[in-house]
Every structure is written in structure tokens, then in C-alpha cells.
Design goal:
By secondary structure, the protein is of the alpha/beta class. Helices cover 51% and strands 17% of the residues. It folds into two domains: 227 residues, Alpha-Beta Complex (Spore Coat Polysaccharide Biosynthesis Protein SpsA, Chain A); 70 residues. Helix 2 links the parallel strand 2 and strand 3. Bound molecules: uridine-5'-diphosphate and magnesium ion.
């Protein structure tokens, strides 16, 4: 089977990478005789990314572009690309070419053998600074436990069969986390190993703040464990409280002098603190519920370019 392969490239302020990426991916697929289309999703870039995409689309009929009305994040860009894709299979790859395009061929061959979800797995994390690597490790350990799949080496570099793509784009979930959802859907899965390369141009779009927000939001969309943790903590505190009360009472009966003020003070602080913590966690999840029930669109498309469906 020689089906069409749609390659989705989320791009945010990647003006220096559009031409290089379309050349790199295009030539690899052309040489391997794989029919393809490239879909660049401009995630509200503030540089000339969109002009570059339009130019590329005029030069090469296999290139299409989607422009968001503002920055909606990589997850939204991936979903929009999948929504626009007409391929029998879709590949998601970073526009900065940190994911080696040659691996698409390997993924495509596995897809031809009948695999439906082909995950790109990192063998090394490339050159990331100490703190960043540590934070990423902590995040993935927590997330792996929450999502019950190994996420440490997972990446957004994947090939998905049309079946999996259709499931993903129909998911009503707002806070989608593509990396974990694509393994959550199941299907016949294979993995391809790759080395994370150095970014060719531009800079990473992640600040520490955005990483922390990303980690919290994705962990909470896969587990309610923090809520249970708070319940357990509350129960433990009550238990300690009760024992303490009984002990104090016995000592009082035995005639000892109990430092009532200190005891009460400490206890109040402890209870107050844990209540606040509990409320914080509950508030966090309520915030997520609120986000989901608003049913806002995940992204807004401002413009399209290149060949539109139906045209040849
Ligand atoms: N990206 C995006 N929207 C964003 C941030 C990033 O579409 O809000 C794209 C970016 O253009 C790149 C990919 O996501 O193609 C990975 O981003 P980056 O290289 O900054 O992340 P890192 O490789 O450092 O994890
Ligand atoms: Mg990168």
C-alpha cells in the first residue's frame, strides 16, 4: 500500500526553519518515493514565519499552511494539522529538525507492514542544561506513573494511521496532551528510536514557567491522585489530632501540666495549612473542569494557504 503521508509541522517563530524543514522532509520523502504533503501550522508567530510558509506553498504544490489567529500552543497546532490532513497516515515532526526526517521513512515502512501508531522514542535528550534535564526527568517520571505508560523517552514525533487520527481529532477534551493521548488510544503500536539533534536555528520556545504550567496541566489531566493524596493527608491529620487529644487528656488526669497554648497553636497551624493545601488542589481541578465545560474551540484558524481539498 502506497498511501499519502501527511507531515504536520507545528511552527512558532520559525522563520529560519520553514525552508530548511520543507527541503529536508520533502527530499527524504521524494527520494523514498513516498507520496506526501507538508502541512505547516503557524501557531501565531510574530516573525515572518507565515510569509515563508506562503512562499513555500507557492513553490511546492505539496506544501500547505494553516495560520492561527494567535498562539494556541503546540498541542493545538498538532491537532489543527491533523484536522487539515488528508493523508492515509500522518506524521508529526518538530519544525526545528530536532527530529531526524530520515526516520519518517522507517515509520512509513512500519505503517505499510500494518502498524497503526508508530512512536518516536528518544535515545538521548540532546544537549539540555542540567536543571532543564532534571525538571524534564521529574515531570516524565510523574507523568509515566499517572498515564501508566513509559513517557520518559516519549516525544511528539509520531506516525499515526488515519484511524488513530480520526479518533484524536474527534476527542472533545480541551486540555489534550498529544504525546500521552496517542498511546492512550491503543491500536497496533511500534516504536522507532532516534537521537535528539541540536536545534538548527532559532531558539527553544519553552520558558521554565511554561514548562511548569505544562507539567501541572498534563499531570492533572491524567490523574486525580493529588485529590486522593489530600484526602489521605486530611484523615492522617485527624488521626494524629485524636491521639494527641487522648494522650493530653490521660496526662491531665494523671496530674501533669500540659502546655495547652502551644499544643493548640501548632495544631491550628497544621490543620489550617492542610485545609489550604486541600482547597488549592481542589480549586486546581475545578479550574480544569471550568476550562473543559466552556467548550471553547481549541484553536482559531485565521488563514489557509496552498492547495485546498478538492483542488488538484
Ligand atoms: N511550537 C509551537 N507552538 C508553541 C511552541 C512551540 O508550535 O507555542 C513548535 C515549535 O515551532 C517547534 C516545536 O513546537 O517546531 C518544538 O518546540 P521547541 O523546539 O521550542 O521545543 P523543544 O524542542 O525545546 O522541546
Ligand atoms: Mg526543539
Amino acid at each position: 500500500m502506497q498511501g499519502l503521508c501527511s507531515v504536520i509541522l507545528p511552527s512558532f517563530n520559525e522563520e529560519a526553519m520553514i525552508d530548511r524543514a520543507s527541503y529536508a522532509v520533502g527530499s527524504v520523502l521524494y527520494d523514498a518515493r513516498i507520496p506526501y504533503e507538508l502541512i505547516f501550522v503557524d501557531d501565531g508567530s510574530t516573525d515572518s514565519t507565515w510569509t515563508r510558509i506562503q512562499d513555500a506553498a507557492t513553490e511546492n504544490p505539496a506544501i500547505r499552511g494553516v495560520k492561527f489567529s494567535r498562539n494556541f500552543g503546540k498541542e493545538a497546532a498538532i491537532l489543527a494539522g491533523l484536522g487539515q490532513a488528508s493523508g492515509d497516515c500522518c506524521v508529526v515532526i518538530d519544525c526545528d529538525m530536532q527530529h531526524p526526517p530520515e526516520k519518517i521513512v522507517e515509520m512509513y515502512r512500519l505503517w505499510q507492514q500494518g502498524y497503526e501508531v508508530i512512536e518516536g522514542q528518544k535515545t538521548s535528550r540532546g544537549t539540555e542544561s542540567g536543571l532543564h534535564a532534571f525538571a524534564a526527568h521529574a515531570f516524565y517520571t510523574l507523568l509515566s506513573a499517572a498515564a501508566k505508560t513509559d513517557m520518559e523517552n516519549a516525544s511528539d514525533f509520531k506516525l499515526l494511521d488515519r484511524k488513530a487520527v480520526d479518533v484524536l481529532i474527534r476527542m472533545p477534551e480541551r486540555g489534550a496532551f498529544f504525546r500521552a493521548l496517542s498511546s492512550w488510544v491503543g491500536f497496533k503500536t511500534a516504536a522507532v528510536q532516534f537521537d535528539v539533534r541540536e536545534r538548527e536555528a532559532g531558539e527553544s520556545k519553552w520558558s521554565t514557567k511554561s514548562l511548569i504550567r505544562y507539567a501541572l496541566s498534563n499531570i492533572s489531566s491524567f490523574t486525580n491522585a493529588p485529590l486522593q493524596f489530600v484526602t489521605i493527608l486530611g484523615a492522617l491529620l485527624l488521626g494524629v489530632d485524636l491521639i494527641w487529644a487522648i494522650v493530653s487528656l490521660i496526662r491531665r488526669i494523671a496530674g501533669a501540666l500540659v502546655g495547652v497554648g502551644t499544643g493548640i497553636g501548632l495544631l491550628l497551624m497544621l490543620i489550617g495549612g492542610s485545609c489550604m493545601l486541600a482547597l488549592g488542589v481542589i480549586g486546581f481541578y475545578i479550574g480544569k473542569i471550568y476550562d473543559e465545560i466552556r467548550r471553547r474551540p481549541r484553536y482559531i484558524i485565521a488563514e489557509l494557504c496552498g492547495r485546498t481539498d478538492g483542488e488538484d
